[in-house]
Amino acid sequence: YADGIFALGTELVAAVAAGGGQKLQRLKVGGVANVSRNFQENFLRPIMGMDDVQLVLESGSLDELLPRLAVHKLDLVLSNRPVSADAEQAWQCRRVARQPVCLVGQPRPASRPFRFPEDLLGVKLLLPGHSSDIRTEFDMLCEHLQVKVKIFAEVDDMAMLRLLARDSGGVALLPAVVVQDELHSGVLQQYCVVPKVYENFYAISVKRQFQSAVLKKLLSSTA
Question: How much is the pTM?
């Protein structure tokens, strides 16, 4: 009971600090560092530019962000890994997007389209690190296809993977949203969608007595 009382008191203080019931509301969002910045911007777009909303954005590991969410120093955490409720914390985790993963690189001549999986042998691959679910799925796919690949770099940070895809001449494995600007401008080309490999994105929150209207609006837009 005491823990519940203290948690409610902390939530009430956070709600007052966030401007609950006032004209200006603050929304504090944590983004896991290896989640695409483009995805985060697209997710927040429904409330961007609203005159009565002030966004506070933080970045870190999931282990760093969840404790801040638990004590209401964050309202929401965006992650590419789910979390499950346990005896200590009833996390509310919902999948807000599921995107196919593709191979992208510098534009190829129209006469030489990329063939999957045959052309994997002749390119320098830029892959997410082993902690990534899409790396695990890709490795399993290559094992199933009996394809050995040449890895040029393993990168946990999607922003760095995006830069290497643009500048190194390698072929990167990532969701298209990560390089949406480069694909649109023609700097990079999508070679193929990798079958059976997806990246999931999750919005993690905690149950509140005083949930802000702007958080409700954001989550309802992804329902």
Answer: 0.82
